[in-house]
Amino acid sequence: MSNVRKAVPSAGRSAPASTSGKKRKSQGPRYYAVQVGKRPGVYLTYAECEKQTNGFRGAIFKSFLSRQDAEAFAAGKKVQANSDEPQKFYAVAVGRPSGIYNDWSEASEAIKGVRGPKYKKFATRAEAVAFIREHGSAETLKALGETVPEEEEGEEEEEDDEDDGEDDIEESRPAKKLKTTGKEKTDGFMQIYTDGSSRSNGKAGARAGIGVFFGDGDHKNISEPLPGELQTNQRAELMAMLRALEVVADEQDVRIISDSKYSINCVTEWAEKWEAGGWRTSNGDKVKNQDIISAVRKRMSERSQAGAQTDFRWVKGHASDPGNVAADLLAVNGAKQR
């Protein structure tokens, strides 16, 4: 049993997180604090706690040996760990749920059946947190009560995606050499690859382009410069998604495949929170690229009203996926048109 879970919605997946849990010993009764759930409060049994958290999106709960600590946690306060904390810390950066455990039996349960789990044992909690910070998610860090840098909450640092240099991709290299058909339908979904590129990203004189790949030789394929004065890779990635949704029919189910976790998270996870908060980050700053994010969300809503689904899937960039490579080529060539 893990002590804290925070279910995080995303495109076709769920990524829970947990904070550190004490190894079970005969230490007296436990108090289960539900900070976010159906009915927040303190419960005396795990079964009662589970009733308040199972199926509740974004549930956060944790067990304590002290009722005072449990009440403080349920009220949203940060509770310090006990001084007799065990010396083994199992950091599970990718698991179900993710988090830090003091008991291997609990950590092993968190990685059982998980595809591509990422975990490691440490002698100190600080090292375990550092591992989560490097390989895990911002949601896991927040559930652990750790400070989350702004870029990890949705304002990720711009990648220097110059692709890179003028001699690494030939102008004449045709996408038709790639044996793929982006417009193939899987379970009724049309697959569309999108990508963005920005030469000299983040610097004066940057030139960005967008690429949308529907399939080999498809007339709907897009390769064009990013409009506007701000020429960043993130804007290009988001604009590519928007252009894809502008071209495809409202009634067609689509799966947009992108190598930008930032863009996917923007339009599937973070946008709802930002909209509710007046398009401000947790630090009170204005959300970057709000104009494009809002436009993408609007198209998603219009498509939903027409009865169509809009799905998003992440793929590793600059790797072996031919559809992603094709979209990247289109984006790079689009940047050269500016």
UniProtKB/TrEMBL annotation:
It is an enzyme of class 3 (hydrolase). Residues 186-336 form the RNase H type-1 domain. CDD domains: RNase_HI_eukaryote_like. Keywords: Endonuclease, Hydrolase, Magnesium, Metal-binding, Nuclease. Gene3D superfamilies: Ribonuclease H-like superfamily/Ribonuclease H, Ribonuclease H1, N-terminal domain. Residues 148-170 have a biased composition (Acidic residues). InterPro entries: Ribosomal_bL9/RNase_H1_N, RNase_H, RNase_H1_euk, RNase_H1_N, RNase_H1_N_sf, RNaseH-like_sf, RNaseH_domain, RNaseH_sf. It catalyses: Endonucleolytic cleavage to 5'-phosphomonoester. Its EC number is 3.1.26.4. SUPFAM superfamilies: L9 N-domain-like, Ribonuclease H-like. It comes from the Eukaryota. GO terms for biological process: DNA replication, removal of RNA primer. Residues 1-31, 140-182 are annotated as: Disordered. The keyword GTP-binding does not apply. GO terms for molecular function: magnesium ion binding; nucleic acid binding; RNA-DNA hybrid ribonuclease activity. Its cofactor is Mg(2+). Endonuclease that specifically degrades the RNA of RNA-DNA hybrids. Belongs to the RNase H family. This is Ribonuclease H. It comes from Clonostachys chloroleuca. The lineage of its organism: Eukaryota, Fungi, Dikarya, Ascomycota, Pezizomycotina.
